[in-house]
From TrEMBL:
One of its GO terms (molecular function) is DNA binding. It comes from Atrichornis clamosus. The SWAP complex consists of NPM1, NCL, PARP1 and SWAP70. GO terms for cellular component: cytoplasm; lamellipodium; nucleus; plasma membrane. PANTHER family: SWAP-70 RECOMBINASE (PTHR14383), SWITCH-ASSOCIATED PROTEIN 70 (PTHR14383:SF6). Keywords: Cell membrane, Cell projection, Coiled coil, Cytoplasm, DNA-binding, Membrane, Nucleus, Phosphoprotein. InterPro entries: EF-hand_SWAP70_N (IPR057836), PH-like_dom_sf (IPR011993), PH_domain (IPR001849), PH_SWAP70 (IPR057837). This is Switch-associated protein 70. Residues 203-299 form the PH domain. It is found in: Cell membrane; Cell projection, Lamellipodium; Cytoplasm; Nucleus. PROSITE patterns: PH_DOMAIN (PS50003).
Amino acid sequence: MVGLKEELLKSIWHAFTALDLDRSGKVLSHNLCTVLNVPHDPVALEEHFRDDDEGPVSNQGYMPYLNKFILEKVQGNFDKVEFNRMCWTLCAKKNLSKRPLLISDEDAFKVWVIFNFLSEDKYPLIIVPEEIEYLLKKITEAMGAGWQQEQFDHYKIALNTSREGLSAWELIDLIGSGQFSKGMDRQTVSMAINEVFNELILDVLKQGYMLKKGHKRKNWMERWFVLKPNIISYYVSEDLKDKKGDIILDGNCCVEALPDKDGKKCLFLIKCLDKTFEISASDKKKKQEWIQAIQTTVNLLRAGSPPPHKEARQKRKELRQKLLAEQEELERQMKELQAANENKQKELETVRKQLEAAAARAAEEEKKRLQNQVELQDRFSLELEREKMVRQKMEEQVAQKSSELEQYFQRVRELEEMYKQLQEALEDEKQARQDEETVRKLQARLLEEESAKRAELEKWHLQQQQTIQMTEAEKQELENQRMIKEQALQVAMEQLKQLELERKEALEQYEEVKKKLETAANNTKSWKDKVAHHEGLIRLIEPGSKNPHLITNWGPAAFTEAELEQRQRSWKGKKATSE
């Protein structure tokens, strides 16, 4: 019931958008109840559409009323063609193009119904280019003409650049313009549209004349058979006015070929639970086609599968959704890769700036280190010069002291000589000893002064050695700092190279994803071609004629003899007029 409700909503949506519901909502509701065989509820109708805040233009609106009081009560026992014709009547006058078309209003109505069947399940309703191609191919094949794929590809490119698809009225204009049916007359186009309408909307899987054996009188009568997903109806003629009966199909039915008997050929048997039907086809080919078509229908009933055209439509829709999801996923991955690439670029730029800043700091520190080293060398040079001058002064003092010591030794010798001389004089002995004691004290004092000078010289020498050692230590520490900074710079350069490699890998991944996207697009086109080719191969056999089999330019059994004679008279009249 959900699928039925969606199909009904599409037709109602056209009528809903074409009417002024403030004035025509009751009319639409009444007509819907009539054609859908839904009991009228005058109280709910008047209550919903009274002129107050609860009217159709309020927050409650028309659609809740439609769902609650009409669509939820639909049982499926209504005429779909009559329902669609009612909705068409309400919306066609306002939306149908005023310019002349190559198709009649009845054909436009059928195209509108087919549009509702093939359109997407979103509003406003549109039919996508893939479904447009499918419909035009079906109509072209029904006309017996060749499909112009290149012409449609140009049209599709022009359509995709402006919008996603066509509305129902634009589709009617496209088919009515004759752009894809050039060289075909109105009758041929009308017959093709009717054939596609019967297949897609009325679920006519096969139809044609065959002989049927009666159950009571056992006589053979020619009947027009129409095969649908769960029933075979047979009529007196193909105008479908005088229906003679139905053959109800289910999973228990079977169809079998019979040998020729009683002068009847191409026989086959349809077995149901309560009855058995013997039927004779016009030839072996028709017999095999009918047996295969009926058996396929029974198999679908056993499997609970929908008719082939509905199943194909669902598969095309699922394929579009899958391709759309894959395309969105690829676009998402592309965006993620682009974002990751941008982040990598930003990281590389940040690292490059950090390396430049680190290199600048290292250069500045190296400059400062060299400057400090020059300053230290200058300071050490000054200290060495100062120390050299001090050493020179000390050497001069030592030389002076040595001279004084030599003089002292000379004096000692002189005193010794004097002592010898004083020894000779006994009377001067005491005075000589006192002088000697005085000289000895003076010598001791000089020795002490010499020791103090030597200690001071050693102290200066030790200070000089300590100063030299401190200079060497500072120089070694500065050299170690320079080596550490050079190592840090080398590590940063290696990190930069690693980031460059990662950026190249990200670019390679981006190229791979881009190639995958192109491959997915090529696969999508290949699948579309395969689906189009598959759909082109599934074409139902046109109904045959009661008259003898004819071969014309439009194919086998395309026209009856009466139609062919009428066409020949038309051609002769046109030829006489032109002459």
